[in-house]
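Bumping with the actual sequence this time:
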Amino acid sequence: MQTAFVIICLGVLLYSFSEVDKQGFRDENLIHLAIGIVGLILVVFQEQILKLGTPYHQRHNCTITAEGFLFPNGYPFQYGYMRKRKLLDYIYIDEIRISTYPPTAIVNENETIFLLGLTKEDIEANSEMLLAPITKPQDNWELICNEFLDTEFDEEFKKRDIERLTEAGIYEEEVQAIRSKIKAQMMFRTYATWDWVYYGQYHVLDSLRPLNKKKYWWTMDIALRQAKQI
C-alpha cells in the first residue's frame, strides 16, 4: 500500500514537472507539484508524524516485562536514575506506590519513577513478578495540588489537607510557599484541561517546563517527605 502511494506521488510529480516544462508555472501545475511533494513527505516521515500526533505522556508509556518496567521511547525526565535508561529493573525498586497516578516506583529511597501508561490494577495483577512491596502511602503532591483543580472544596476539606501534610512534616507555611511557586503553571494547566479529579507530582513536573535538575529533585523531596501509610 505504501509503495503504491509512493508510485502515485512520483507519477504526480513527473506529470507536474512535464506540464511546467510545457506551460510554465500555472496554478494547476503548482497545485499538482504541491500534492506530490506533500504526499512524499507524508510517506517518508510517516513514523515521526504519527509520534507527533500522540499525546506527550503517551509517547513515554511503559510496559511490564519479565526483567522490569520498559520505556520503549525512553523516560521523559532525564535527571535521575532513568537518565539514558529505558529499563527499570525490578531488583532496584524499593517499593511501588499505587496511591499516586500514575503509579510510582521508588528507587534509591529518594526518587519516584512514574510508571506511565499503567494503572494500579496492572500493578496488582502482576504483584508476584514485581518483587517490590506494593504500598499506598499518602500522596503529598495530591494534597498540595487539590487547590488548583476545577473543583470547589469546603474549608473543612482544605483544613484536613493541611493537617495531613503537617503530619508528613510539611507545615502550613511551607505548603503556602509551594502553592505560590507553582500556582501560575498549575492554573494554566487547569484552564487548558478543566481537570477536576486529580493532580500529582507528575502533573507538577510536566507543568514546570522548562524543567531542570533543581526543580526535579525539589519535587522528589516533597513527594517522599515522611509519607504516612494510610
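The C-alpha cells above came from a reply further down the thread. Residues 46-55 have pLDDT under 50 and may be disordered.
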